[in-house]
Design goal:
- By secondary structure, this protein is of the alpha+beta class.
- The protein has a single domain, classed as q2cbj1_9rhob like domain (Jelly Rolls), CATH 2.60.120.
- Helix content is 31%, strand content 16%.
- The protein contains 10 helices and 12 strands.
- The strands form 3 sheets. The chain has a 6-stranded antiparallel β-sheet with strand order 1-8-5-10-3-2. A 3-stranded antiparallel β-sheet has the order 4-11-12. The chain has a 3-stranded antiparallel β-sheet with strand order 7-6-9, with no helix packed on it.
- The chain is globular.
Length: 330
């Protein structure tokens, strides 16, 4: 396992590895065949998939992405089912592309998650991935994370935003700031039609300046989605180009400069939740205080229905696990 972890950054780009993985999960992928036909994709469900393969684009735009979103939002009786502060945040969603819920998670639950992670890492039940900066899908071992990502109030909020059923796809835990350059999640987890993805970020501790805080660009979700065909890279029939993501980041930096976007930084308190649109540009600030931590929990949610879920950056169809199967209350 150590060998594969060390060289996974290489293996993960090889299309033969993707094919073998997809064949192993054929039963989960075969449902995409009808959707591929609808969206004009002339590929096997186990083959690589890219945005440009969809020759008949879906035009089912999420309702809160439409021009009359705010007016429709006010008419929707479902808005009143949320507490007043959440309603105010929802009204800002169409323009900003994100919402913030202070103290969403009890501080005790944050501590419970941190303790579970520490114990699981100590017992070698989970580990940091090949980047050595994050733990993927700790929900499989952490009951507390499993409950949080399936919180009924959070799921109800997501399903109101999309008017579709939503289910968790993956979790990511960070101990330190990611320092990830600005990006849209839709390059990593993509949908056709576009936009049927959202993510949550929850602070598991009070965060300090210099710890690599989360940054974001309000309103950037309304910009065109940047996909693999929108910039040059060296991908070919054998492998995804090792310059693809770096070139993508450069393209995003150019877009930010061109549009003169204004960055904001989220200095969160323990339990604060940041929920963002699939195309909101965001990233992690540089860590200037190396002794600090930035414990956080990220969850990505796909929508159900006639939607193809895939990964534009690695050109793989998404394999849905059973992340929605765990239940409980906070």
């Amino acid at each position: 396992m150590g060998f594969f972890k060390t060289y996974w950054s290489v293996f993960r780009r090889l299309r033969i590895v993707h094919l073998l993985y997809n064949l192993r999960h054929y039963k989960q992928l075969k449902k995409n065949a009808a959707l591929y036909n609808r969206f004009g994709v002339s590929r096997s469900v186990v083959a690589s998939i890219r945005h440009r393969d969809f020759t008949k684009a879906g035009h089912d735009i999420p309702w809160l992405d439409q021009k009359n979103a705010l007016a429709e939002l006010e008419k929707d009786q479902g808005l009143k089912t949320f507490e007043t502060s959440w309603q105010e945040q929802l009204r800002l969603w169409p323009e900003r592309g994100y919402l913030i819920i202070p103290a969403f998670l009890p501080r005790e639950t944050c501590d419970q998650i941190s303790l579970e992670l520490q114990t699981l890492v100590g017992n070698n039940e989970i580990a940091f991935d090949y980047t050595n900066s994050r733990i993927m899908n700790a929900w499989k071992k952490s009951p507390a994370i499993c409950v949080v990502m399936n919180d009924p109030k959070l799921i109800a909020l997501l399903e109101f935003i999309f008017r579709r059923k939503a289910k968790p796809f993956q979790t990511i835990n960070f101990l330190k700031g990611s320092q990830q350059r600005t990006h849209s999640d839709s390059i990593h987890m993509t949908t056709e039609p576009l936009g049927y993805l959202a993510a949550t970020w929850i602070a598991l501790e009070d965060l300090r300046e210099g710890s690599g805080l989360l940054h974001y660009y309000p309103g950037s979700h309304k910009l065109p989605y940047i996909m693999g065909e929108d910039f040059e890279h060296s991908s070919n029939a054998l492998a995804v180009g090792d310059d693809l993501y770096g070139n993508y980041e450069h393209k995003i930096a150019e877009l930010i400069a061109e549009k003169k976007l204004q960055k904001e930084i989220f200095t969160a308190k323990k339990g604060d939740l940041f929920l963002w649109h699939a195309n909101l540009l965001h990233g992690g600030e540089a860590i200037t205080a190396p002794e600090t931590t930035r414990k956080s929990l990220v969850t990505h949610y796909f929508c159900e229905g006639d939607i193809v879920c895939y990964h534009e950056i690695s050109q793989r169809p998404a394999i849905h696990g059973k992340a929605e199967s765990c239940t409980g209350t906070l």
